[in-house]
Amino acid sequence: MTTVDCSTPASKAEILELLAARGAEQGALHAAAREARTQAWRDAAVVRGVIEITNRCRANCGYCPMRCGNPRKPAPYVLSPDQILDAARNIQAAGLSVVFLQAGEMPETTRLAGSVIPRIKDLFPGRVEVLLCLGNKSRDEYAYLRDQGADSYILKHETSDPVLHQELRGQPLRERLDCLEVLIGLGYKTGTGAIVGLPGQSLESLADDILLARDLGAHMVSASPFIPAGGTPLEACPTGGIHTTLNMIAVSRLCRPEWLIPTVSALGRVEPDGQFRGLRAGANVLTVNHTPPEFCRQYPIYGQDRRIVQLANARQLLERAGLRNRGARWIR
Ligand code: SF4
Questions:
Q1: Of 270, 272, 268, 308, which is closest to residue 290 (Cα–Cα)?
Q2: 301 lines ligand 1 (CB under 6 A)
Q3: How many A from CA of 232 to the centre of ligand 1?
Q4: What are phi and psi of 145, to 5 degrees?
Q5: pLDDT for 124-170, tens place per residue?
Q6: Which of 11, 260, 284, 301 has its Cβ near the most Cβ atoms within 10 Å?
Q7: Which ligand 1 atom sits nearest the alpha carbon of residue 67?
Q8: What per-residue confidence (pLDDT) applies to 2?
Q9: Residue 190 C-alpha to ligand 1 middle, in angstroms?
Q10: For the CA of 136, the nearest atom of ligand 1
Q11: Which of 64, 23, 55, 31 has the alpha carbon at shortest distance from 229?
């Protein structure tokens, strides 16, 4: 193969060919993804401010250091409504307009997030997006959070391989997909996404991850390299490859130019300039951490030595990529 066809890939075979691109072909793929982003978004990107409201989680996902069975998990914490509101004020003061409430999967986050969402909305004189990532919940809980003012929800399917999903998450893939369908039905702007490089994962199943997000009608999609974390059953497994992760971003962009696609902080764990390379592969979202500093290290997503992205880093990355923060205005 000497050239790649970078027009919108429609079939699994086309996606597979693009995911495998390396060298000059990979450069052409990423350039085509940037062009698709420009056509859909011009120079607009979205910067989110995340507040990690609790590190407690009832689930036991094999790849995640937040799993309930991790013997080395940091001391549990739950932010109070006032602590969440203080952090939201900091997000507003930083000039951001997307407040992202993230947590492990715990039933009590429904009431906690629901109680603060209207107060968060009152803090912002202009448009604000409240984005949630709180795991699987019932239809009634999702509906309650939507009624309280939540705009969007991220629930990554992690892997579309049903066998691997059951093995790693201890739940059927169908359960996750049912939740995603409920979220879309309730009018949430909905995000999903995959981990790249899980042990036992094939390139075919990564192509299925993109097709799943497309066929579901998601509005946002992510690809995060697998980072082996201490205290998990996968701690000795190799890190996910940056090339395949970047190609997942690029191919997702070509499949759906209008998607929001983050360049995740885990890319910066795999390679120092990894997040910039994510933007160069067609991503258009960055997340800045606004969890109170005393709790940041107790939220061990991507491992204890997680990379904390600050506003200055995000601004510098956007400037280098020729992008500008559009914030909550992407929700029309
Ligand atoms: S991936 Fe999410 S649901 Fe699974 S253990 Fe980690 S925090 Fe909990």
A1: 308
A2: no
A3: 12
A4: -65, -35
A5: 998 999 999 999 999 999 999 999 999 999 999 999 999 999 999 99
A6: 284
A7: 5
A8: 46
A9: 18
A10: 3
A11: 64
